Amino acid sequence: MRVFLRIFGIFRLLARYGLLREAGLARPLRVPAWMLLARRRRKGAPRGARLREALQELGPIFVKFGQNISTRPDLLPADIATELARLQDDVPPFSAEQARARLGQAYGRPVEEVFAEFEPEALAAASIAQVHAARLPGGEEVVVKLLRPGVARRIARDIKLLRGLARIATACWPSTRRLRLAEVVQEYERTLEYEMDLTREGANASRLKRSFANSGIIHVPAVHWDYCRPEALVMERIRGVPIREIEALKEAGVDIPELAARGVRIFFTQVFRDSFFHADMHPGNVFVDISDPKNPRYAAVDFGIVGILDERDHHYLGQTLLAFFEQDYARLARLHLYWGWVAPSTRAEDLEAAFRVIGEPIFDRPLSECSFGRVLGRIFATAQEFDMQLQPQMLLLHKTLLNIEGLGRELCPQLDLWETGYPLLKQWMQRRAEPARALKQLRRDLPELRYALQRLPRAVHHLLDRAEGKPVRTGRSGLDSRRNLWRQLTGCALLIAAALLLGLRAEPVWLTGLAGAAAATLLFVSWPRRG
Known about the structure:
Strand content: 5-15%
CATH topology of the largest domain: Phosphorylase Kinase, domain 1
Helix content: 55-70%
Oligomer: single chain
Structural class: alpha+beta
Strand order of the largest sheet: 1-2-3-5
CATH superfamily of the largest domain: Phosphorylase Kinase, domain 1
Distance between the termini: 49 Å
CATH architecture of the largest domain: 2-Layer Sandwich
Number of domains: 6
CATH class of the largest domain: Alpha Beta
């Protein structure tokens, strides 16, 4: 019922902004606004502005949806793309009084006692938080990021909506089960929970800063940990030109093709070298240091959403892309079968033919015209048709790659992600095969390996006992056995008491009590013994 009421509220709001007709719904679904108890507003406003305002009113999750699709202007009408781009850092801020109150609550003292200077007007505002400029007592220029009031409650409400819709879709359309919608929603909920704990964002920033220490292509701001709280994050203030201001970059003499290529190299380095990548790279979070126009350097902010790939995901991604780059579709199919990425009953020939259908049209034309993100999405979709269970972190990677590609193509329409990414991928695969790397990993895992070897004789002994039908000793102490016995006796006593209490309500009383006692005794006798 809560899901239904929320959906009704969404339709009502869309009707108020006149967006149901703009959505191109079938005429029977174009419910008149008066039937939804909604009065039209902003009748003369452009559709892009009405859509942006509606998403802002719907809440943080819908704002993030608008932010994500705004990074793909090639998929949207120009007027809508322009308006949705404003969601990246131009959401209406909350008041300076609320900001001061939240900071006072976080630090337990007035803002004036914490910072030497604090700008009451927000530098930028987004769906979950907003940013203010400040100065520390030592003179360092910083930015203070604050969570919006009531954001946790609004996100929890819409997560329930997404969870309910996922259950409905899975129950009504069995074909959606392979998408694991419930797990995707759960992963998204976990991501938002992390994003609402700003100390986690600070930790993410610190890790990225270590990864790119002394880098000449990207600068990650430092975190001032003494001033950080779960609802307040204090970081070094960076100066730069927003990457969406392409004309300003050109006027400054920035090497735009080199800037676009560096963005791709940064992303591939995070994925294949570090297995840890910034997963919210929309234009509102990226600035450019133009102090040396021929050697432009990125400056990133907002590290609330990051992606982490484990060894299996890393291996899948690298092997899949490398085989696809080399047009070795047979090897690509064998990899999916050998590593169990698809159902064992899958015929290798069918899988190879499906991958060939994706690749041949692409390699038949200039690679600069192809979309890396779309190709990876089609590979994922094809594998899912053969019952591959796609992990949520791979979906996050795909979304981030689409953002990076959209940003790069906006800077340089001729950007060739294949040409930039393939050498990095090849180099990474060669490093994985080096004996020195294998020895280093073996040395790192040596304590766990020694522990496993110590347990091996006992495990083999238990397996042999099981094979011969002998009881397997678990090694429980006498104290554990006595505790187990007392738990059983306590449970039986509770059952007897419950049966007697129930017997007081029936006739004859003694018969019901006797039956309860007999049931409890039988339960105790049949209780499985351990140890």
